[in-house]
Amino acid sequence: MRKRKLATINMLNKVDALYVHVPFCSNICNYCNFTKFLYQEDIVNSYLISLEKELSFYDKNKYSTIYIGGGTPTSLNFFQLNKLLEIINKFKNNNEDFEFTMETNPENLTFEKISLLKKHGVNRISIGVQTSNDKMLKILNRCHKTIDVIHGIERLKKVGINNISIDIMFGLPHQKKEDLLKDLDFFLKLDIPHISFYPLVVEDNTIFKINKVKALSDEKIYEMYNLINKKLSNNGYYRYEVSNFCKKGMESKHNMKYWNDDYYVGIGPGAHGYVDGVRYANSSSITNYIKGEFIKEEKLISKNEQEFEYIMLRLRLKEGIILKDYLSKFGIDFCDKYSSEIEKLKKDGYLEESLESIYVSEKGIYLLNHIIATLTMNLNY
Amino acid sequence: MSIDKSKIRNFSIIAHIDHGKSTLADRILELTNTVEKREMKAQILDNLDLERERGITIKLNAVQIEYFSDSKEKYVFNLIDTPGHVDFTYEVSRSLAACEGALLVIDATQGIEAQTLANLYLAIDNNLEVIPVINKIDLPSANPDLVVDEIENVIGLPASHAPKISAKTGLNVKDVLEAVIKYIPAPTGKDNNPLQALIFDSFYDSYRGVIIFVRIKEGCLKVKDKIKLMSNGVVYEVQELGIRTPKEVKKESLQAGEVGWIAATIKNVKDIHVGDTVTLLDNPASKPLPGYRKMLSMVYCGLFPVDNDKYSDLKDALDKLSLNDSSLVYEPETSQALGFGFRCGFLGLLHMDVIQERLEREYNLNLICTAPSVVYHVFKTNGEMIKLDNPSKLPDIQSIDRIEEPYVKASIMTPSEYVGPLMELCQEKRGIYKDLVYVDNTRMILIYEMPLSEIIYNFFDKLKSYSKGYASLDYELTGYKESNLVKLDILLNSEQVDALATIVHRDSAFNRGQILASKLKKIIPKQQFEVPIQAAIGGKVIARTNIKAVRKDVLAKCYGGDITRKKKLLEKQKEGKKRMKSIGTVEVPQEAFMAVLSMDDD
Q: Which residue, among B548, B552, B579, would best test binding to A if mutated, counting the most A CBs under 10 Å from its CB?
């Protein structure tokens, strides 16, 4: 099955995004429900062997964005990290705007590791900062302190990696507006081009869930979102996606591909991919992965389902649905097909329209689920 | 070819629900090799999925069985199945009218119950020979001798000859068949008399039109005969006829005493009335057979398609269902809130439930049902009387002189230890105590006169919970009485919702208004704006609550390219929206319209 599928993948030059999942952490955070395992040296070694095998099915030198996520990719030791980057490096193309992102935690941002990343061409770093409140970091069971963030970012800039993003959480247990404002002031001082904000969600199978931690109410989250939006817009950031803010031109090219409904390859345990109309998911079992079992599920996405996904993803973006793109992708005039739904949502003030696009209004962005569900009410698959 | 009528027996099986009627039917089919064991599905006569799932028989079925008796003679039995539930009295009486005898199945562990009696009286009304059959004697708690005494003492039916059987294991089932031969009379009609055939059931077949089931009382019917329906004079030509074994078997003719089916390319479902008499065009009978006592609809509710475009589909489905369920009545209704639909009348709550489910399942309709209502008699100051089955249509209060509501005589059979709590329950439900009768040392029948509206409002469930499931209920309409009734209106976002209006007793209006408002608050999801819910009587608000607005429902993250979770959530939300009805600008889920009924007022 794998081989047959890949034969088609390789024919398609359309796929030029690669996601690599590194499911290891030196420490498990209390809110995390991603596929991850506590770091063990020998398991990581076996993982790297399997990863190389999985990648051998794919064409080299063709990806214009590569994203190594986790887990905590930088929890690997120096030699393993070097090996990982050597394997992955064979897949990048020579485009001028090639983007190579790696996720990391502040405590891993040593000169040693940063230099290694730089050497292998990593040109964008996404740091799990979460909050600038050290007490709260402890509650989240993070391993770093705020001072590590300051030093880490200084070092990154020193070696010339300036394309830095930080992941921030808000709506933390007992967090007040003032706490969030303090956080925002701190983040702005870091002078970086990209910030992602995520409200805390208490997911199943997390320590927070077990300890019955309560997330803040939707009303409070809503107010905090507004506060963040206002503060960041006043300071030169632009909200290009529901949770993502950046300075002009500094969007994440790789993530944009997800929201643009483009194809991408996903590698590693629990990774997801979308190639040639088929969405697939890798087994999230590290044992099976090491045994060489990769893709666990595949699903062909029907034409209507593709339309649904496209709408769902594109509306997350500020620019919304570009009408001529929609027409060329589906052969359908978006405004014709959904005219009554669009009218209703425009009347409610949730959608807005320009000459070439339909997009979600400032007011509508927090009710995106309602908007998508209403818009696609009669789209069945 | 004439058949020997002395070797024909037509009978039904009647029982309280769960006493083993369908299981006995299965064993009889098996024992007589009518259905091979390998073809046997449990409860073969219950061929609606719904019937098998719920363990109840709703629709009639007639099967011809050949039986070689102990005396080595061949008999032909026509077994006509009947529904067991109190709501289906009408259908029971239909099948009984096609028979000469009935088997009254009684559970040896439970004894006589309320519906055992109700069904028995129907059989006696129809002049049937009744053979008691004591079932489930294999169970450790069975006490067949006690049940025999009970039958003789309580219902005055001789029971010493009653077969004692286990339908489940097949023990002594042959005794039942021998008893049928011995005690149930053979049919009496003559083949050369003018044809009189009683229609006792019908259904719609998309290839052959309406298929009718008949019992030939007098005369003889052949393929190509021109038949006339005596109630409306409509004429058809018989294309095919036959019997069911339970598979359809075609025959050339049906003769007096037989039970069978007729196909005559009947396209118009409205021509066929169950209870009507079929005769021949050329040699008609002088008068029809006595029809059935037409049952009155006791409970009404509005049925509306969620999708307004499906109105004609709903109409079609109701037409077809009413074909073999003439107790279902319906007429078009328009609701401001729900659009076009039908006001439908049912024999009782279970009947209503079954029809709703059949419409949804068999006809693939997505329906909203309003809370059930009884038929009120509204006397206006100008002397006019209106029969009101739709609470929202109650005339202006100033023009009303008085309102009367239907009362029933409720017979509750219960082990004596629950009499106290059950009397309290009846009292609470505005019941008027009538009588308390001992069935035996341990069981009593409690008789109350009670408003029917209280019975449809949460009574049955409470009856079961107050008596740990042991009490059984039967009721019959006794007449109308004046009550102090008011209309309880519900306003969503300051708009009156006609489909949520109910008529309640003034004393409980305040309480119900509050419960209903808070129940609706729980059922109706948060909207994009704040929605006030008000309960009002005659323009005066008696309860108020608010549904908060959703401020945020957006999902923050698409995890590492995994969009499946987000997609599933959205799909769920979409499905939820689809099942909702927009009332003004408020999206209301279907359950809201039933909230009136299911609310717990403890």
A: B552
**Owner of token pair 């099948």:** B95
Rounded CA gap, A280 and A272, in Å? 6
Residues of A in contact with B560 (CB under 8 A): 19, 21, 34, 69, 266, 271-272
Q: Where are the domains of chain A?
A: 2-259, 303-381
pLDDT score at B45: 53
Contact B14, B82 (CB under 8 A): yes
The token pair at A243 is 């949770």
3-state secondary structure of B102: strand
Residues of chain A contacting residue B562, judged by C-beta atoms under 8 Å apart = 272, 281
Whose tokens are 């006592």? That residue is B293
CB-based contact, A367 to chain B, within 8 Å:
yes
Strand partners, B304: B368
Instruction: Give the helix ranges, DSSP H, for A125-166.
Output: 134-139, 146-159
Q: Which of A258, A260, A295, A307 to mutate to test the interface with B (most CBs of B within 10 A)?
A: A258
Q: How far is A183 from chain B (nearest CA, A)?
A: 19
pLDDT of A281 higher than 80: yes
Identify the pLDDT of residue B357. Answer: 85
Please report the ipTM that was assigned to this predicted complex: 0.85
Helices then strands, counting H and E runs in chain A, come out as 16, 17
Residue B582's CB is within 10 A of a number of other CB atoms, namely 10
The mean per-residue pLDDT over the stretch B517-546 comes to: 90
- Beta strand segments in chain A, E: 17-22, 24-25, 37-38, 65-70, 99-104, 124-130, 164-170, 194-199, 238-241, 244-246, 265-267, 272-275, 278-282, 295-300, 321-322, 351-353, 357-360
User: What's the one-letter identity of residue A72?
Assistant: T
**pLDDT at B567 > cutoff 60:** yes
Residue B39: pLDDT band (50, 70, 90) is low
The separation between CA B447 and the C-alpha centre of its own chain, rounded to angstroms, equals: 23
Q: Hunting for tokens 């697939």 — which residue is that? A: A280
Q: Are the CB atoms for B459 and B295 separated by under 8 Å?
A: no
Q: What angle do CA A119, A129, A261 make, to 5 degrees?
A: 75
- Decide if A317 contacts A330 (C-beta within 8 A): no
B549 and chain A in contact, CB less than 8 A = no
The half-sphere exposure of A266 on its side-chain side, counting CA atoms within 13 A, is 33
pTM: 0.64
Length of chain B equals: 602
A309 to chain B: closest CA residue: B567
The alpha-carbon gap from B561 to the nearest alpha carbon of chain A, in Å, equals 6
Q: At what angle do helices A111-119 and A78-89 cross, to 10 degrees?
A: 20
Q: Which strands, in side-by-side order, build the sheet including A351-353?
A: A321-322, A357-360, A351-353
> Six-digit token pair at B139?
């169970």
Query: Is the CB of A128 inside 8 Å of chain B's CB atoms?
Result: no
Apex B164 CA angle, B163 and B165, nearest 5: 105
Mean pLDDT of A88-105: 95
| CATH T-level fold of A2-259 | TIM Barrel (3.20.20)
- Rounded CA gap, A281 and A322, in Å? 29
Band of residue B600 on the pLDDT scale cut at 50, 70, 90: low
Nearest-neighbour CA in chain A from B554: distance (Å): 5
Asked if A308 and A331 touch (Cβ cutoff 8 Å), the reply is no
**Architecture of the domain delimited by A303-381:** Orthogonal Bundle (1.10)
Beta carbons of B587 and B525 less than 8 angstroms apart: yes
* Whether pLDDT at B93 is above 70: no
Chain B nearest-CA distance from A149, in A, is 23
Same fold for the pair A2-259 and A303-381:
no
Count Cβ neighbours within 10 Å for each residue of A331-352 and write b for 16 or more, e otherwise. Answer: eeebeeebeebbeebeebebbb
Task: Give me the pLDDT at residue A6, please.
Answer: 44
pLDDT digits (tens, 9 = 90+) for B348-399: 777 888 888 889 888 889 888 888 889 999 999 999 999 998 999 999 888 9
